[in-house]
Amino acid sequence: MKHKFNILLRVTAVLVLIGIAAGCRSVPSAGITVESYPKNSISVNSKIMGGLFNVTEVVAAKENDLLNAQVTVQNITRRDCQAEYRFEWMDKNGLSITTPMTVWIPVNASAMEKVRMHGVAPNKAAEDFSLIVRFRRASTRWTLRR
Amino acid sequence: MNSICGCLRIVTMMFLAAGVAGCFRPPMSGYVPAEEQGLFTMGLDDHDYDLAAEDITREMMTRGLPKGYVVALGPVDTRECPYDVRVRQLQKSLQVILNKENTLKFTAAVDVMAAGGDAATEIYRMIEYNWLNNNPVDTEDLQKFGKLAKLNGILFGRVSALERRDRGAREVTYRFVWELANTETGIVDISHEYKIRKNTRR
Fold first, then answer.
1. Mutation test of the interface with chain B: which of A29, A123, A139, A141, choosing the one with the most B Cβ atoms within 10 A?
2. Nearest Cα residue to A143 out of B37, B21, B32
3. pTM tops 0.90
4. Residue B58: its chain A contacts at CB < 8 A?
5. What value of ipTM does the predicted structure carry?
6. Do the chains contact at A139 and B50, CB–CB below 8 Å?
7. How much is the CA Rg of chain B, to the nearest whole Å?
8. Distance to chain B for A72, nearest Cα, Å
9. Residue of B nearest to A100 (CA)
10. Which DSSP category does A139 fall into?
11. Cβ-Cβ contacts under 8 Å, B30 against chain A
12. Per-residue pLDDT tens digits for B122-142
């Protein structure tokens, strides 16, 4: 009886350990990154995010001398998902352009829905962009505990 | 006795695992990224102002106004919003974004009035009165004010909020309506609306 109890306890412990390990694996990451230089490159930084969203189209064109970018992302699951995205703009030398326009914009995607993320360069110097899509989250995870 | 030892071992292993997991975390600091959402509130918070400012400037840039176009933020009607709306903060955010954009120039109407003198102030009061009372803005007033203050356009704003409650859930929708009136022609060059909806359940 005791032996069985011990085995059960060990199995529970192993399961708890796996749970802790799984918890550590789901550390928030950059999700999906779309870069336009040297050619469109898409990196999936989070397996969970990569399993939910697919980048289906990247369009960039200049309008009124300002670079316009539109990235279409599809929710490939059968449930709703909340995400947020942010464009970063670079000049021809790859130097980032600081602007208050690089704010995290919330977006909701229903099951199988395609969502278009649109960004306009903050000025004419912008030649390149980088888009980051990640799960929506508050910055409360940074809050220090007293 | 053996079972107690086994249990102790398992508990020690669990603590070790938790400790190791904790060690992998980088050190924390109280400084947090300001462009992130931050603490959630039902009122208009810093992130909402950023979103609203980003949206209207993006709209103006996409429409492509002529180079050197001078825009002044005119009256912003916030009476239909029971929450505090920091118009000045919104003005300054827009000013910073447009200044960096380098094509459009932005000025707060109050500063413009100082440059234009008493006549401009009087006309501005008329424009403000008409906007706040939902009267059509007089084209002649716009043209006169534009000449006196050397402006090409005035950005009118209306911020309203609708709140709904249903079985413990609360939802607030903020509506930002912008109209950019051309001071030369009197025509509304840009008319734009942006909504922020927030909800919470207790």
1. A139
2. B32
3. no
4. 101, 119-120
5. 0.74
6. no
7. 26
8. 18
9. B97
10. G
11. 144
12. 888 888 888 888 888 788 888
